[in-house]
Model the fold of this input.
Amino acid sequence: MSKKNKDRDKERRLAYTTNPAGFNPFKDLFSEGDNEQDQSNDKSAPIRVHLEKKGRGGKTVSIIKGIEGPEADIENLLRSIKNYCGTGGSYKDEQLIIQGDQRDKIVDFLKKEGYTNVKKSGG
Done:
């Protein structure tokens, strides 16, 4: 390896840490106010629950659009909805996908969780 490549490797070394808080090299790029605003979960945002069959082999799924917030919170909400409905589901392309026609149960559950602008859409 040439001297030029060795110098380049020294600049690119990874640093590992055992600190649970970790090291965030991007923390200075965002101001604290912006970061807090992104992390908040707005429960008054419009949420729509609709039915879809296309591209799923004739299987019906309920699609939930409009839920925003940190991905960890969305995953926890998805887990709670799946348990409440007794079905499977996933999170993909900023949409919660629940197996079967569960629109009524999902709307009831989200209203119990404090979401105010939840409606069924479509037929």
